[in-house]
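Internal ticket #5521
Category: modeling
Description: The requester needs a full-assembly model to guide mutagenesis choices. All entity lines are attached below as received. Residue total reported by intake: 675.
Assigned to: D.W.
Attached entities:
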Amino acid sequence: MTEALTQPVTQPVTQPLLRVRDVRKEFPTHGREVVRAVDGVSLEVRKGETLGLVGETGCGKSTLARCIAHLYDVTSGSVEFDGTELTGLSRRAMRPLRREIQMIFQDPYGSLNPRRRVGSIIGDPFAIHGISAGAERKRKVQDLMEVVGLNPEHYNRFPAEFSGGQRQRIGVARALALRPKLVICDEPVSALDVSIQAQIINLLADLQKEFDLTYVFISHDLSVVRHVSDRIAVMYLGKLVEVAPTEELFQQTRHPYTRALLSALPVADPDTADSREQIILAGDIPSATNPPQGCRFHTRCPKARATCAAAEPGLDPVLDDGPAHRTACFFPLTIGEDLSTAVPDLKAS
Amino acid sequence: MALLEVQDLRVSFDTPDGTVRAVRGLSFSVDRGQTLAVVGESGSGKSVATQTITGLTRGAQISGTAYFEGTDLISADAATLRRLRGAEIGMIFQDPLSSLHPHYRIGWQIVEMIQAHDHEISKRAARRRAADLLTLVGIPRAAERIDDYPHQFSGGMRQRVMIAMAMALDPALLIADEPTTALDVTVQAQVLNVMRRLQEEFGTAIILITHDLGVVAEMSDEVIVMYAGAMMERAPRRDIFYRNHHPYTQGLLASLPAQSGKRLTPIAGSPPSLINLPKGCPFAARCPHVFDRCRVETPPATDVQGDPRHQSACWLDHNVTEAVAS
Ligand SMILES: Nc1ncnc2c1ncn2[C@@H]1O[C@H](COP(=O)(O)OP(=O)(O)OP(=O)(O)O)[C@@H](O)[C@H]1O
Ligand SMILES: Nc1ncnc2c1ncn2[C@@H]1O[C@H](COP(=O)(O)OP(=O)(O)O)[C@@H](O)[C@H]1O
Ligand code: SF4
Ligand code: SF4
Ligand SMILES: [Mg+2]
Ligand SMILES: [Mg+2]
């Protein structure tokens, strides 16, 4: 309470639904080292918005998602959902909150038990939480099937009898069963062909409006994330490197890694493809067991200077950016700056 | 004469559920030094078609011809195909681990491959060649890493090793089946760049199989759009994006996420089963322009606006294309 008194009176217009503060998650390895999968991430998600989370394989997106959904215990830090601190909550205290945070996963094949009928898969959440049974549960499940665009008459079919897109709809129905507030979508369309991917993206958008959902949307595909997100957070090696409102991230890219990601994304437009700047990053992503000192991107960054290897930049507004746009970089890009000709020089500062 | 000329290729598999007609009358050609992109949803027959050409489909009924520098690959014997694979036709697959032997050092595998086709070359020369190739595809400190095992390489590096092996004998044709699908975008950009550079240097023709229209726009000279085992449209790159004719091509492009916010335009429904394909146009069940004839007769691929390089298998007027502002 004393903390509240000393805080400035600039209360945000809407309270964040989710507030993640300095979350770390480490995994033990065979040796004595640890994998620092998520290494000090702070972010907020407001009610009704979609926060996109992008980054390359192994950067910690799924681990962060699982920390938020309380599927993992965090190593340190805090996860506050709708005003309640989740870290350290007992199973029993967590139970009612579990209903409010749901996840949708990438693999529409792997995440459904092939030997169970679709009706009972979608009805699982009701069973687990002891809500409604028998004919009432069946009616609720069939309503859900209708909502996500599945034929309710297919209640007794097995997952194998559905296409990839339909299986993803099953996953969406199951996630929505208990009317969650927050839905974490972990690569929900990555395994789908584009024509089907578009169906699911539209479905998620409709459901968000209809049920007033808040999304954290994880993908490695920037064009998908750009389409669905209000704000985007870019992750690299366990840390956020840039967070900004969607269009600002694209128009006013500050972090060299964000720019490299954007430039690597193939564009389905020959004229743009022929004329745009191409930044080919050197090397591979370093190991999360032994991340580079200082700025983690300095081993691949075209702008790297000695400072970058010595100290770690914080995630703050840079140049003339407002508070909604934060970047972790000592030498942020100015608008129009050409990164493709930059050369790293770790001797100069 | 084209480097590779495929005529009326048909491939089917007998399965307990019935006959899967994976490729149904595919014709195309590839010129030297050019990149032909083959694009389509999963299951459309892209991999089966190219694997059949290189003699890698087993237990299938195959008909048609595929002339490569005067030899019909479809009727060629196993020894001829083995000689051509590697020496004349290099191949890269989606999953590099499945094509690299896990128990042998990278360098040893490349040397073996070079020596299998070049009986004159000494072990030392082959090894030097292997190191040069690894350098060429951007493996840092190649001379040291040549003695590493595949698992010591990252996914992107393994894919570059695969490219090095595929290019080892300077083939005239490189078939790359989803070479970057399993990779991150920054690594994909590196790998595509390597392919581009090698093509410039050696004049290699490339068949690039992908489902990513972005990769098509970046890499191709010509494009084939496949659906349900057949070619729907074929055209030079810019025509596919800016002056396309086939409703399926248009549907694919419209499905792509736009800049932001707006509702996407998916293609309704999902692809048909290749076991019991209905009569007529294979896309009829999902096509917004379908009319009576489409359900009765299968449209042949014919020239669009009188241009033999641009063909579409659709009954709609071939003098009208989707004019997309470019
Ligand atoms: N259970 C675990 N035990 C040990 N290490 C783990 C575990 N889960 C994840 N990691 C490691 O943590 C890091 C982050 O993994 P995570 O799955 O969160 O990445 P991601 O961003 O979701 O990647 P992708 O795009 O491939 O899904 C990686 O280095 C990974 O190998
Ligand atoms: N060995 C096989 N036996 C039976 N069906 C097969 C076999 N190989 C491929 N198919 C089928 O052939 C069709 C085309 O497959 P494929 O060429 O792999 O598609 P793509 O590469 O376009 O995703 C699919 O329906 C697939 O299931
Ligand atoms: S801090 Fe330095 S190394 Fe890190 S992104 Fe910025 S310029 Fe590059
Ligand atoms: S032939 Fe008919 S159904 Fe097929 S693509 Fe053309 S208009 Fe559509
Ligand atoms: Mg993940
Ligand atoms: Mg394939």
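Resolution: model delivered.
Comment from assignee: Residues 2-239 of chain A form a domain with the Rossmann fold fold (CATH 3.40.50.300).
Ticket closed.
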